[in-house]
Amino acid sequence: MTAYAVVTLNVTDPDMMARYREAAGPAMEKHGVSALHVSPAPKQIEGDGPVPQIIVLLTFPSREAAEAWNTDPEIADVRAMRQNAGESNIFLL
Hints:
Elements: E1 3-11, H1 14-30, E2 34-39, E3 54-60, H2 63-71, H3 76-84, E4 86-92
Antiparallel strand pairs: 1-3, 1-4, 2-3
Helix pairs in contact: 1-3
């Protein structure tokens, strides 16, 4: 069953984020991940919490595929790029 994840990003190192974007494609392809939508300027319409700079909606073939993508040791360096580019949070739906 299809699974979704919401990624929130606050970038503090744009150069590292650019490197991550280049490396992310093959890492995502390996696990059947697709970006359904990338919002570089999200607008908060309810609530008063902090608004991230970027929100990404990902789709996976299954929850297991999402978890495998998140823990795959072969792409740990790609994950580290994202984490070192700023603050990121991933919510599996």
